[in-house]
Model the fold of this input.
Amino acid sequence: MESVAIFGVGLIGGSFALALRKAGFTGRITGVSSPTTISRAISLGVVDAGQPPAEAAAAADLIFLAQPISAILRTIAAIGGSVRESALVTDAGSTKASILSAAAEHMTGRIFIGGHPMAGKEARGLEAADADLFYNRVWALTPAKPEDEHRPQYQEFIQWLERIGAIPLVLDAAEHDRIVSLTSHLPQLVSTALAATLATRNPGTSGVHGPGLEDMTRLALSSFDIWEDILASNRDNVTSALEDYIATLEAIHKAVVTCTDAEIRQIFGQGGTFARSLRDDSPGGGG
Done:
């Protein structure tokens, strides 16, 4: 791999470029973003140059789509005919089914590997990019075709993911979307709902709160501009996750109202067991 094109040089795209450099990549990294972002990325040493989409796609060995989901879908349709057959195309979208469907339609004969690094920050943009963002974090992979896993381009990509400290994990796109609706999308909505609830109740800003509230509302700092696409592309799974969560909240509400200690004790026990297992077993976390 001698050349990389990054579409969307923001937090994820910029961090991937910085991580590659830190891991020893000496090839050319080209960015596809707004002129302002490209100028800043060049000045920070994140990318070597900027290019228009078709030119960047035609010249790259690895194409990394680090845009919002709707933009990834448009990019796949726009550059499909420009990608070399020897290149590998991957993405960082938070849902996979719709992206793989677009790749199947527009990238026939190309190697497309769906991807989702389970890492992130509330902050957006190039200035938040971090070479260590993916260290010890799962990088979910959903190959469009099983045979692509045996291609040398795929094997080299896996090696680079391991060099930047990520933990590659291959799974089915539909299963990925089901899992992240519970482990990523639901936590975002819970955090947002909690912060919105407190905003309407006006508890004041007297500082009468512990770090737990800051932890619980951290994800509420995330922008809807990013989450709009995620929720729209995984609506059925997110709806199911919300229904399960609402049912648990209703059980807690009933137990509190009726002073049914046994039921709420059971819910506390279930929650504590899961929280401990998450910390004991998970290689990483993130959004």
User: Anything to note?
Assistant: The domain at 3-170 is CATH 3.40.50.720 (Rossmann fold).
